[in-house]
UniProtKB/TrEMBL annotation:
SUPFAM superfamilies: Acetyl-CoA synthetase-like. PANTHER family: CAPSULAR POLYSACCHARIDE BIOSYNTHESIS PROTEIN (PTHR36932). This is Phenylacetate--CoA ligase family protein.
Amino acid sequence: MSEDREDRLTLTGVAWDAWRTTRGGPFAVASRQEVRLEALVARARSSSRFYADHYRSVPPGPLGPGGLRRLPAVGKPALMERFDDWVTDPAVSRTGVEAFVADEANLGKDFLGRYVVFTTSGSTGEPALLVQDPRSVTVMTGLSYARAAGALPPGLGRRIVAQGLRQAAVFARGGHFLSTTMFERRLRAHPVRRRYTRFFSVLEPLPDLVAELNAFRPTLLATYASTLALLTEEQEAGRLRISPVVVTTGGELLLPAVRRRAEAVFGCVVTEAYAASEAMPLALPCRLGSLHVNSDWFVLEPVDAAGRPVPRGARSDSVLVTNLANYVQPVIRYQLGDSVVLGAARCACGSPLPTIQVEGRTDDILRLPGTDGGVSVLPMALATVVEETPGVRRFQVLQRAPASLSVRLDVDPGADREDVWRRVRDRLDELLRNHGCGPVDLALADEGPQVSPRSGKLRHVLAAVQERPEEASS
Ligand SMILES: [Zn+2]
């Protein structure tokens, strides 16, 4: 597709092209990425005052193969500070977008009749305002149509039809968050969906949420991973009685234990997507359960702490993302902050798209003093050790000081809190020693885990240096 044609993308065009690209192999992926990248960078340099300044020392003209690395990276604070220079449409201004999102009645409406706006909750840093043009929204939807179904087992459609299509979205209200906004937008575009789709807020009391889900009996359920863990316990306890066919999670770390337990308790498929408000959908699952990066539309560059590229198969400290679809607010080599591993080998499903493992989304990587310098402990390791301790219902680990961890714990009904805590402490102690940490003080907190009051998400691991006031207050 030429750049000119790509300005007028259609949903079927994107879906068809995505299908052909996957069939075409690594070369088809790379060539699309290259053409789209040149077009995006040219647009950013000509129409965004921010990028015109930022790239002043980079020679004009095509970047050529591998040329992306010559462009300096960008971060959210610098872009937000120069919001009006960042966007390529002079009709879009920070004051205008702020006024738009301040009105909750605008949820699911398009800004200026043509742009989709997301706000981030600020649970992982300062809030951002993200504007997507129609081109970007078409790619978002087209990719989901073409690639998201790959993870579902055959015969699923028949099961859903047999039980009745009822779709529940269990997310947070109170902001123009990605999931909430896209949900409301689809309802506005197709009011008929209101017959079989319903929104539930994770911020309402659990017994109310359980009662409403029991009445609705969803066959499809989308929610955060921590909410899924909670609903799984409610189902086990017999209070929740639903039989979804597919559960989709995103936005948080989905622990393997939580996934296995949910699949067993609900007897359903649990899938996971990787998306950011800056770039969506970054990765979608295949039938083998691997997440595949949509690298024909998004460039992901895993980097180390100094910003140097990290090879495939190795864990990164951060990741730079380039969104090839959105022209109104170009996102080029943008610091996303997630720690990822790009797969070194091709997935057995046959897709040429690289696989990815994601860590440190909403959870922090802890830096602890070691017997031989500083030690990094990944949230997945820490969370798995605590999560799989018998008797643990929900937990949160806070680093209060460089060598001091405080654990907030909810235990199963009937379990002895002190007993459970001793087991958690022993397992944590062992994990930290195996990581080469020096002595770390482990303490049980008086209070239970605190869900972010704004985003409704539960962050399992919080580092001292990055502790946010909203979670720290208790
Ligand atoms: Zn695969």
